[in-house]
Amino acid sequence: MLNSGINVLFEGSNFERLLGGLLVTLEIALLSIIIGTLLGILMGLLRTLQSRPIRFVLRLYLETFRIIPILVWLYVVYFGFTPLLNVNISGELTAIIVFSLWGAAEIGDLVRGALESLPKHQVESGQALGLTYGQLYRHVLIPQAVRRMLPGSINLATRMIKTTSLVVLIGVVEVVKVGQQIIELGVIKAPSASFWVYGFIFILYFLVCYPLSRLSKRFERRWQN
């Protein structure tokens, strides 16, 4: 029975469809990570300013993403803003918007934490040498901050890739949705199709996320010393 179930992976174009679904997953995650990183760096720098209103607003922005589930954000943007603004937003675009905003909030906090953890005397030494704020950030602070925030950023990227499985609930045909379609068509002939299809999806996510997890650990060990 189990052996017959594995055949569903190779019937027709099922195998290629699953890989195509994984590609959609990775495209959403990669675009979100890039946009989120760029916005997050800007937010992180703004959070190091002494302006209390700016710090309060950005802190509130971060907390909304930590408190409210990502699935609710997807529903709000996809089902809420579409009729409210009378615009047509695809599921893929909705996912990229929500994941980018989430990434920006988390990256911003990582940047802030990394910058604020640097010894104060480095800023004072740079100023004593006559460096401008731009030179100070470019040559002294940001290179060190990147080292400190990189492991956390890689972990965040891994979480974002895994969380993309939620976008199936707003109609995006990614790897989990393709798997569901294959199971629905093949479950009558092969009752164990769910085991093999979801098992294959499990392996795909593992192959993508495990190297990132190892890379994060490697950076942590290297820069701890």
From TrEMBL:
Compartments reported by the entry: Cell membrane
Signal peptide: none
Membrane topology label: Multi-pass membrane protein
Keyword Signal: no
Domain ABC transmembrane type-1 as annotated: residue spans: 22-216
Gene3D superfamilies: MetI-like
Cross-referenced PROSITE patterns: ABC_TM1
Record flagged with keyword Chaperone: no
GO molecular function: transmembrane transporter activity
Domain of life the protein comes from: Bacteria
GO cellular component: ATP-binding cassette (ABC) transporter complex
CDD domains: TM_PBP2
InterPro entries per record: AA_ABC_transptr_permease_3TM (IPR010065), ArtM/GltK/GlnP/TcyL/YhdX-like (IPR043429), MetI-like (IPR000515), MetI-like_sf (IPR035906)
UniProt xrefs under Pfam families: BPD_transp_1 (PF00528)
Keywords associated with the record: Cell membrane, Membrane, Transmembrane, Transmembrane helix, Transport
A GO BP annotation: amino acid transport
Stretches that traverse the bilayer: 20-46, 58-81, 93-111, 166-183, 195-213
Database matches in NCBIfam families: HEQRo_perm_3TM
Family, per entry: Belongs to the binding-protein-dependent transport system permease family.
Protein name: Amino acid ABC transporter permease
Organism the protein comes from: Paenibacillus polymyxa (Bacillus polymyxa)
